[in-house]
Design a protein that fits this description.
By secondary structure, the protein is an all-beta fold. The chain has a single domain, classed as Umud Fragment, subunit A, CATH 2.10.109.10. Strands 1-2-7-3-4-5-6 form a seven-stranded antiparallel sheet, with no helix packed on it.
Length: 105
């Protein structure tokens, strides 16, 4: 298995960034357009409704997060009117979802 990885020299990225990646889907538009490079801090605390990077069921997702009163995790896309970009994880499912860090916007 091979992956295309390109290393970039340090430069204009935020000093608290631990890594960066390119967004390959449109789920966070218009906030983060497809093809944008985002910087991620694995050390910065992520608060509700902030954008983070999540590993869920083998997929890396860039989403805003919130929690409902039942303890479920809801990963929201950039445009709340596009419900298909949101992911609902009940209390059991959310245990299999890992937050990789906060997207620095």
């Amino acid at each position: 298995m091979t992956e295309d990885i390109s290393l970039l020299p340090r430069g204009e990225e935020p000093p608290e960034a631990d890594f960066s990646l390119v967004i390959t889907d449109s789920a966070m538009e218009p906030l983060i357009p497809r093809g944008s490079r985002v910087y991620v801090s694995s050390r910065s605390p992520l608060r509700e409704m902030e954008t983070g990077l999540f590993l869920c069921e083998g997929r890396v997702l860039c989403r805003r997060w919130c929690e409902d009163y039942n303890g479920a995790l809801i990963l929201l896309g950039g445009d709340e009117s596009r419900r298909e970009d949101s992911i609902y994880l009940d209390r059991e499912q959310r245990r299999r979802c890992l937050c990789l860090g906060k997207v620095l916007i």
